[in-house]
Give the backbone structure.
Amino acid sequence: MFGRGYPLTLTLSPLQGEREFNERDKEMGRTVLPFSQVLEQEIQEWRKFRRGLRREDQQFLDRLFEEARLHVQAGVYASRPWPFETILVSILIEHEKVLVELRLKLKAMEEREGDHLVTHEP
């Protein structure tokens, strides 16, 4: 799986706020960063990959991570073992929203074109 390779468990409570623990850190009494910081670390871990991309593709990778940032709060509540799963689902949600919008626009264009053909037939 993508990500760091070790599972994380998210412990959430309105009183405790957002805190992530992995098993090793629980035993040692250390806390892992909030999800927003985990996301930033993940982005940093992709820097070498980004540098290997063509410049125009770098901007697309940047946009993907920007889409993931839109769902940080959901990531806090997700409690997924691998944070990268949450990042990918966040990106997919944004892509799905764009697809739905494009489908609606295409349908409206097709309906207008259909109306135009019906009214102008000989």
Observations:
- Helices lie at 23-28, 35-45, 47-52, 55-69, 72-78, 83-119.
- Strands lie at 9-13, 17-21.
- DSSP finds six helices and two strands in the chain.
